Amino acid sequence: MTTLVIVRHGNTFAPGETPLRIGARTDLPLVPGGIAQARALGGWFAGAGIRFDRAFVSPLRRTQETAALILDDQPDPPAIEPAGWLAEIDHGPDEGRTDAAVVARIGADALAQWDERAVPPPGWLVDKESRLAAWRALYDAAEGMGGTLLIVTSNGSARFALMAQVALHAEARALPSLKIRTGAWGEIAVEAGVARLCGWDLRPPAQ
User: Fold this and answer.
1) How far apart are CA 136 and CA 190, in angstroms?
2) Lower CB density within 10 Å: C or N end of the chain?
3) Considering the entire predicted model, what is its pTM?
4) Averaged pLDDT, 85-105
């Protein structure tokens, strides 16, 4: 069995800043709070005895910084491997806008459909089938990669991990949302190519 630990990067907006909807076209670094989140994750994983055999990240700086900080606590960390298929989605005309402005354009229901069913809102650029195919390929190959894989990506990208197999998607329907908060993770176990949801939107204690 192989375990996939799917982490969303840490915060890219500081307290007092207005969060914006940012995607593949906006490459922000972690703010101090995001650095603290990544370090907390690294300490928690190490303290729990979790050792990563491979580490995959999206092309964005915020995911690469998060992965590096997590791996700082590993006694023999794997190399970080960039993976283009983990890239964040493109929010089209809503890139860089507040959620209030996004809702004003597309409506609250469209945003809820995105968070609950991964249905892209009008104008967003999301190659859903390509993303699902990439996750399926990972599930098929997972057992040849090692016991535990670290995958650091963004919120828009991570949700497709839950949609790539019928049984896994059925398990995900019990979740209140497909979203992962910043500095949180999900766990999926894969055995003989079959994926099973173990947890979603998890954070270390006291976060």
Assistant:
1) 11
2) N
3) 0.95
4) 95
